[in-house]
Backbone:
C-alpha cells in the first residue's frame, strides 16, 4: 500500500515539530519498518531523527499500544488509519522482530515457548495411474519410475519431473488413468508436467494429469492452490497452439502459454485466479456462458455457486507470495490469515470468542516457527494459546 510522497513528508514534518498524533506516529513506523520507502524519503531523516522515530514507537508498543485518543484530534484518512492500526501487528521480516521482544519478556504471553511447531516443507505423495504410490522426499534423487513411455524423476530440491521427451500421444488417442501429486497440510512441492509446463503446489493441494498429454489438448484438475507456468505447444500441422485447461471446482481456465496463480481451497468463499503474464479465459462450469478474459495484473473471483465472476486489478506479489516463501496480507482479516497458518503449519485453529475484524497489511516469512508468527500477530488485540497442535484464538 503506497502513499504519495507529499503526504508522507507532511506527516513527517508534523513529527519533527512534535505535533504528530499517535496515529500518525504509528503510521510512520509501519511505513518506515514495513514498506519499501524511496531512498530520498529516508535520506531526509537525520540519524537522530530515525532513532527517535524508532524509540518513540517502541516505547508505545511496550506500553501496550494504548488505544485512547485525545478528544478533538484530527484522524488520519481511512486508508492510513488502517495501516496505523496494524502497525504493531505486521513486520517486513520476522528476523527484525527482536525490537518487540522485551514486551514478551515482561508480560505473560500465551504463546507457549515449549510449543515448537515448525513450518511446512517439501512433502508430497505421488499416486501413479496404476494406483501405486511414491512418497516424495528431499533425500530422493534420480529416476523414480517409468510409465507409459514417460520417465518420472526427482531433480533438485522439492521437484519432480515427468519427462515425455517432448512428445505427445497421437491426436485422438484416449489416455487412460491420471497421475496425482498431492501435498499434505504442512507441505508444498514443485513439478514439471509431461509437456514441460511447471507447477508449484501450496499446502493441502493436489493436481491430477495424464502421463502423456494428447497432441490436441491438455487438461489438469486442481484442488487447493497452485501457480502455473504453461509451456506453449503447437498443434499438428502448425494449426495454432495446443490449448491447456485447468479445472477446479466450478471453474475452468483456458490458456495457451502464460503464468497465473489459482486459489481454490474448499474452505475459502470463492475461487480466485490471478494472471501474472499472458492471457487466460476464466469460465464457470455451472454457467458455461459466464466467462471473462483476464489481462496481466487482473484477478477474477468466482463464488462457489458459480453464478458470477468479478474482475479487478490485483497485487500480483501478494497472490504469489506463498511461492516465494512469505505470508503476505493485503487487507486480510484474522480468520483469513489463520486459515493460511492452519494449512502451512498443519494445526487446528479454534476461536474462543468473536475476534477482531481489523484488516491486516504486511509480510511475514513462512520459514519461522508458528510461535514466532503468532507473537507478531499477538501485538494486536488478540492472544493465542497453543495446546499440542491446536491454536486457540482469544481477545485481549
Residues:
Amino acid at each position: 500500500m503506497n502513499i504519495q510522497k507529499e503526504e508522507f513528508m507532511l506527516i513527517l514534518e508534523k513529527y519533527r515539530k512534535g505535533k504528530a498524533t499517535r496515529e500518525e506516529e504509528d503510521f510512520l513506523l509501519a511505513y518506515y519498518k514495513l514498506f519499501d520507502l524511496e531512498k530520498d524519503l529516508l535520506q531526509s531523516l537525520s540519524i537522530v531523527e530515525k532513532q527517535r522515530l524508532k524509540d518513540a514507537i517502541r516505547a508505545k508498543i511496550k506500553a501496550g499500544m494504548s488505544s485512547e485518543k485525545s478528544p478533538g484530534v484530527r484522524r488520519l484518512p481511512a486508508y492510513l488509519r488502517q495501516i496505523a492500526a496494524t502497525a504493531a501487528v505486521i513486520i517486513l521480516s520476522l528476523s527484525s522482530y527482536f525490537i518487540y521482544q522485551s514486551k514478551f519478556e515482561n508480560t505473560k504471553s500465551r504463546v507457549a515457548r515449549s510449543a515448537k511447531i515448525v513450518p511446512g516443507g517439501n512433502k508430497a505423495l505421488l499416486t501413479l495411474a496404476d494406483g501405486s504410490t511414491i512418497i516424495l522426499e528431499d533425500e530422493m534423487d534420480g529416476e523414480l519410475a517409468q510409465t507409459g513411455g514417460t520417465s518420472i524423476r526427482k531433480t533438485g530440491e522439492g521437484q519432480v519431473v515427468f519427462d515425455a521427451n517432448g512428445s505427445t500421444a497421437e491426436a485422438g488417442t484416449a489416455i487412460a488413468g491420471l497421475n496425482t501429486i498431492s501435498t499434505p497440510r504442512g507441505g508444498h512441492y514443485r513439478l514439471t508436467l509431461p509437456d514441460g509446463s511447471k507447477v508449484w503446489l501450496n499446502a493441502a493441494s493436489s493436481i491430477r494429469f495424464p502421463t502423456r498429454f494428447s497432441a490436441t489438448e491438455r487438461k489438469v484438475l486442481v484442488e487447493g492452490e497452485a501457480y502455473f507456468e504453461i509451456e506453449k505447444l503447437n498443434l499438428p500441422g502448425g494449426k495454432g497452439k495446443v490449448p491447456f485447461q485447468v479445472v477446479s471446482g466450478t471453474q475452468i481456465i483456458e490458456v495457451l502459454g502464460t503464468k497465473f496463480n489459482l486459489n481454490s481451497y474448499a474452505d475459502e468463499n470463492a475461487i480466485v485466479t490471478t494472471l501474472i503474464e499472458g492471457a487466460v479465459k476464466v469460465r464457470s462450469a455451472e454457467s458455461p456462458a459466464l466467462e471473462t478474459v483476464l489481462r496481466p495484473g487482473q484477478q477474477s473471483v468466482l463464488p462457489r455457486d458459480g453464478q458470477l465472476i468479478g474482475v479487478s486489478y490485483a497485487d500480483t506479489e501478494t497472490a504469489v507470495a506463498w511461492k516465494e516463501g512469505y505470508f503476505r496480507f493485503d487487507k486480510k482479516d484474522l480468520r483469513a490469515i489463520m486459515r493460511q497458518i492452519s494449512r502451512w503449519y498443519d494445526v487446528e485453529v479454534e476461536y474462543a470468542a468473536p475476534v477482531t475484524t481489523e484488516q491486516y497489511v504486511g509480510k511475514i516469512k513462512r520459514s519461522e516457527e508458528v510461535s514466532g508468527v503468532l507473537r507478531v500477530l499477538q501485538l494486536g488485540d488478540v492472544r493465542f494459546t497453543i495446546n499440542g497442535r491446536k491454536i486457540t484464538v482469544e481477545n485481549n
Remarks:
- The chain has two domains: 5-88, 121-318.
- Residues 176 and 218 are 14 Å apart (CA to CA).
- The longest strand covers residues 218-229.
